What does this fold into?
Amino acid sequence: MKILVCISHVPDTTSKINFTDDNTKFDTNGVQFVINPNDEFGLTRAMWFKEKQGATVDIVNVGGPETEPTLRKALAIGADTAIRIDTEALDGFQVATELSAVAKEGNYDLIIAGRESIDYNGGMVPGMLANLIGASFVNTCISLEVDGDTATATREIDGGKETVAAKLPLVIGGQKGLVEESDLRIPNMRGIMMARKKPLTVKDPSGASVETEAVSFEKPAPKGDVKLIDPDNLDQLIDLLHNEAKAI
Amino acid sequence: MSVLVYTESEEGKFKKTAYEVVSYARGIADMMGSTVTAVAFNADETASLGTYGADKVMHVKNDKLGKFNANAYAAALTQAAKNESAKVIVVSSSANAKYLAPLLAIDLEAGYASNVVALPESESPFKVKRTAFTNKAFNHTEIKTDVKIVGLSKNSFGLKEAQKDASEEAFETNLDDKHFNIEVKSVDKAKDKVTIADAEIVVSGGRGLKGPENWGMIEEMADILGAATACSKPVSDMGWRPHSEHVGQTGKPVASNLYIAIGISGAIQHLAGINASKTKVVINTDPEAPFFKAADYGIVGDAFDVVPRLNEKLKEFKANNS
Ligand SMILES: Cc1cc2nc3c(=O)[nH]c(=O)nc-3n(C[C@H](O)[C@H](O)[C@H](O)COP(=O)(O)OP(=O)(O)OC[C@H]3O[C@@H](n4cnc5c(N)ncnc54)[C@H](O)[C@@H]3O)c2cc1C
It folds into this structure.
């Protein structure tokens, strides 16, 4: 089985989010970048396929040279080869279109992406990619098995889950559940050494167009102070929730 | 040239978000001097969409579409959008809408902005405000394509009444096998339980509750308030509660009216996922817990003392106010 895992390079979840250039650019100063958590669950599931069923695992990212440490980390976790499409990721459509070229060329059976990246939260790359290459698509995927040319996937739905069967090639928008938190791997020394020797191919972009533009950013207005309520005066909480917040 | 809106229903009954997206579509139509066309699938009482401003309802009645199917629904919406020459399509932020919207975007060559929280700031350029960085910031996005898809964040616009006709029209769709390439094997959904996605109120417990055996009081509070139950990530990682209850940056997002956090410290990843909730209450023994900075109301106290007493008070309140 040939697997492609799409890796988004995103600020660590604890990052302070600030903007520069008159609020038009994300301030990367002092920000640690990591593999997008949703993608990391998918990558780890791909390693499971590789070890249990036999598969090759390529990873791909659309981004500049600054994303390479993140790709090396994914290689250290166990992916075989990496592809970086050398262009700034500007919108979901552009990224999906760039990925579709690699996806078609590689003839993958399974393409694992994350349900959304935690920076722009667009949540559109996996579905767009699937539609562009004419593959089956399962979003918010929380479990995945492959048997021959058929995948059985479970997707999270509002209030429950749904199990589906889909023919390969398949694209998923994955998330936690694909593997457990405790299955995530921290690269060991050997993995890191090996990753240095694994191929990381830089490809020219196809020059896909954009459909949307993130023009500017804004931070939420600072919140007012919390109102503290005496634990012996719970009536006050009920009164505030009812009359002030109109929440009950 | 109407504004097309995908109205979700379950077993024939419209979801509350269906009325919210119609209200929002009405807002856009009024800005653009246009009309609102709702697309409904096997729904009852389509006239109810008129209350929130639908001029017309294209009703897809098709047994093959009894259960949600992203490809087939996207195909039906594509055909409806083309029929109506719709320039703007509005969908919700439900799991199903987020599944279908990117497929629709490719079919219609439309730019798609998800998690939008307000009416467009301007029509030309078409600019919307959306959340980004998992609620840690907003982002003003311009959609540059001729046809545009807007995914509305739940509870960000609310229901606004604006009585219109909602004249119903049956809509036949052309579907073939390729639209049914995903075969649903089974659906596992708790009946009679409020889901986090639909809930107005969410009661959430963290590691401070010490163990799964102590969730009785959380469930009791949820029962009294008609709320959904949720939990922090470590609680689901340890198997105290199911993964489906995990909320936060890597779990489910919450955008409820009221979020009550009990024994949750308020780590940045937790807050990111629940910040879109309107009113936040924290109950925690530690006055230094970061949640107090994010909450509207806080009680510094022991959950095991406070929650049972609060439940009694809430019961009394409910008895007198319903
Ligand atoms: C990549 C990444 C992603 C993450 N994503 C998420 C996410 O999506 N959602 C999420 O929740 N977390 C997430 N986390 C974890 C997060 O950092 C915190 O570890 C987690 O939210 C803490 O959970 P908690 O508040 O239940 O536990 P703790 O931080 O241990 O807090 C327990 C709280 O309970 C209080 N307490 C103790 N006893 C009592 C009592 N008797 N009565 C009242 N209060 C009491 C304590 O004062 C404390 O504040 C993520 C972390 C990482 C690294």
Remarks:
- Residues 37-52 of chain A form the longest helix (16 residues).
- Chain A has one domain: 2-220.
- Chain A touches chain B through 80 residues (CB under 8 Å).
- Chain A has six helices and 15 strands.
